[in-house]
Amino acid sequence: MPHPNRTAAHGPQTWRRSRPILAVIGGTGAEGSGLALRWAAAGYPILIGSRSREKARAAAAELTALLPANSAAIAGDTNSAAAAAAAVIILSVPYDSQVGILEQIQAGCQGKIVVSVVVPLKPPQVSRVWRPAAGSAAEEAQAFLGDKARLVAAFQNISASHLKDLSHTIDCDILITGDDREAKQTAMELAQAAGMRGIDAGALANSSVSEGLTAVLIGINMRHKVKGSGIRITGIPE
């Protein structure tokens, strides 16, 4: 059930507009849904995107039930509709699905900031770094979407295991790479809103390193029998 302090509409037109609407494409998955929950709690209206509108709306209802009072609304729609309606698009899908999803949202991404959370992993050896021909998933997405999409890469190195626990502090810095200064600043603000510190890690070409770190962290989790290993950048004042 929606919280009485939030609008239960399935479209953005009745949402409060104090912060930009975020479309979380892949918001039915663990990482995307956890980030969506944290951003909604911080006041960002959220559209969960999925191939299936019904699946997206079901996920939105589940997340809404976890939100504290006075949070922003979470609704669900198809990937293309969510991207078209949002001001900022977060792409949080498995790498193998990236091209197909980009085909669905390409029109809705034009002129907008797109934050890629995609990591190229090559099963079954998901703890070994693998890079696509373009260099990184983010560079591949930028090439597909074209220059009018303002793409940055971020949030690849956080574990999904604690994201939905809003009382849990995520002990991990967020490396943000991209060639658009304003887009990187938006990603910084999203990191802060989710309770994390964003670090400007340079050009989008550097996303190959931050994406690769995910495979390294998966291996660390496996060897040390933990779920939430992350990275911290030292020497920068808090």
Description of the molecule:
- It is globular, with a radius of gyration of 17 Å.
- It has an eight-stranded mixed beta sheet with strand order 3-2-1-4-5-6-7-8, sandwiched between helices.
- Helix 3 packs parallel to helix 4 and helix 4 packs across helix 5 (137-145).
- Helices cover 35% and strands 15% of the residues.
- With 238 residues, the chain is of the alpha/beta class.
- Mean pLDDT is 92; it is low at 1-17.
- The longest helix has 18 residues, at 207-224.
- The chain has a single domain, classed as NAD(P)-binding Rossmann-like Domain (Rossmann fold).
What's the layout of helices and strands?
Layout: E1 22-25, H1 30-41, E2 46-50, H2 53-64, E3 74-78, H3 79-85, E4 88-91, H4 98-109, E5 113-116, H5 137-145, E6 150-153, E7 173-178, H6 181-193, E8 197-200, H7 207-224
Parallel strand pairs: 1-2, 1-4, 2-3, 4-5, 5-6, 7-8
Antiparallel strand pairs: 6-7
List keywords for this structure.
disordered N terminus; alpha/beta; Rossmann fold; 238 residues; 8 strands
Outline of the structure:
With 238 residues, the protein is an alpha/beta fold.
